[in-house]
Amino acid sequence: MGDSIETKIGLEVHVQINTKSKLFCGCTTEEGEPNNNTCETCMGMPGAKPVTNKKAIDSVIKICKALNCEISTPSFFSRKTYFYPDLAKNYQITQYETPLGKEGFLQVENTKIRIKRVHIEEDPAALEHAGGGTLIDYNRSGIPLAEIVTEPDIRSPEQARNFLKKLINILSYLNVIVPDTTIKADANISNSKNNFIRAEIKNVTGFKEIEKALLYETKRQQEEEVTKQETRRWDGTKTIVMRSKETEDDYGYIYDSDIPKMTFTQEYINKISSSIPKLSDERIRELTKIGVSQEDAKVITQDLFVSDAFEKIAQKSNPATAAKWFRKELLKRLNADEKQIKEVNIEALTEIIKMIHEKTITEHTGRELMTKIYDKNFSPIESIKKTGATMIKDTTTLKKMCEDAIEKNPKAAVDYKKGEEKALNAIVGAVMKETKGTAKPDEVKRIIEEMLTTL
Predict the structure, then answer these.
(1) Which residue ranges make up each domain of the chain?
(2) What is the pTM of this model?
């Protein structure tokens, strides 16, 4: 039944803009004791006047341009009126009529997801429900948020997750959101079976949870008859009705006359656009042109600083070899050691990858050398000179070592000749131990196999 039902999903994604102060006042955005980081402005006291945070505005313009949006100029703020304990002034300063960005798109694999609007707004306070009551922390009140709203172009929960992953990748490249931020979204979902009567799932946090909530709601809407719009919440296992779905008219938006309209010249927009780095899509195209596999390129470009480091190394070594070692060795090591790419000695890593590609050293030796890549004074070339750990290329020497290994492991030799393939590993391992990893394992295996077939 579900295969013939068309599903439409639209997302409203909220991310915190990375600024030192709040959107309309000088209060810090850092965490602190509850209700300490507040002032007359973010608490909405009579007579307090908001002053717009320029960095926050510039950051959201950068988001708009990266998402191919048209910039609204002039643009202004509105008051979204609703009465709830998290709003000290009983309205939220946001944008409605003139969002900073509109009519953009984000290409996700083969689908163009249209971006309806990108606007900036202040965060309400944080509510904590405990002990039969509710505690309010106004430290978050006034923190700058960007809201990115898509058209209902997403066709499945999996595609929604892919969209969010690509979006967070772009925002990370732009360096405009709080590092390691957890993405939060409201999801609107409907289907053709119920004439596209939609439900909104509020405030779902994290890629996996958003996908799980959408999977549940997709199934529910296919199995149940939906007759009215609803706002629902996700409890981790199911969506639960909160209220009937309100419309934008219910909020009574009015222009906030305390905040001047913002007008942007084309020169100003171009200046901000010029600070946008090459994004992952462009980098993937460039890397595949120089011999890096599509899969390796996608992994490497997930992080701006990793991608920048890779480009520097690929210019001085073989790109395909560098990509293999970045993906299979470096990124795993960084994760295991809880280190960042900026802590790596890039020159040393370049030398290691070059020597591996040129077969000056074995991969085993390369891994040994990589244990020292956080040492900014480390030189792999000097280390190799001291230890003599260059790859053994003398075939005569290698054959003699293989003969000795066979003589010292007669049982393994007999077992291999009986058809036990794994027995060969004992002899290969003996040679690798004798050479301290400076012999090429594939070459050692080939020589031993040839010798054993003649015995």
Answers:
(1) 2-272, 280-387, 395-454
(2) 0.82
